[in-house]
TrEMBL record:
Keywords: Glycoprotein, Ion channel, Ion transport, Membrane, Sodium, Sodium channel, Sodium transport, Transmembrane, Transmembrane helix, Transport. GO terms for molecular function: ligand-gated sodium channel activity. It is found in: Membrane. Its main location: membrane. The lineage of its organism: Eukaryota, Metazoa, Ecdysozoa, Nematoda, Chromadorea. It comes from Panagrolaimus davidi. This is Uncharacterized protein. One of its GO terms (cellular component) is plasma membrane.
Length: 135
């Protein structure tokens, strides 16, 4: 895990935590992907009168009903038009000021390696037997 810190205005262009409006993922940290989804949902609600059921809607909106042919047609049309909202200029989504980035690494080492020293609180066996619990 790498923790990133960016400077807000006037030094940088990031979004301070908690300073987002129309963010559909209330209770969660701001992310650029969440911003794009919020923008997409906002555009769909404005043009169709209801939101895409795949994403949350804000309190004053409702999801499109599956049995409503007009809503389904509008939703399908807007999804095709707005499908690449990331590259368009219709949404402006900045990076968050504080962000944790996780990276994955792979190893070709044999498990368990000889250098492994796991001490389990409830394991009263030898190291080899304790390591077996992780396999």
């Amino acid at each position: 895990m790498t923790k990133m810190s960016r400077l807000p205005s006037p030094y940088g262009d990031c979004v301070p935590d908690g300073l987002t409006s129309n963010y559909i993922y209330s209770g969660y940290r701001y992310s650029t992907e969440g911003c794009y989804r919020s923008c997409f949902q906002d555009l769909v609600v404005r043009e169709c009168g209801c939101g895409d059921p795949r994403f949350p809607v804000l309190n004053n909106s409702m999801h499109c009903q599956v049995f409503d042919p007009e809503a389904r047609k509008c939703l399908e049309k807007r999804t095709n038009e707005l499908g690449n909202v990331h590259g368009s200029f219709r949404c402006r989504c900045q990076q968050p000021c504080v962000q944790s980035v996780y990276t994955v690494s792979y190893s070709a080492a044999i498990w368990p390696s000889q250098s492994l020293n796991i001490s389990l609180g409830n394991c009263n066996k030898g190291q080899e037997e304790c390591n077996e619990q992780y396999m």
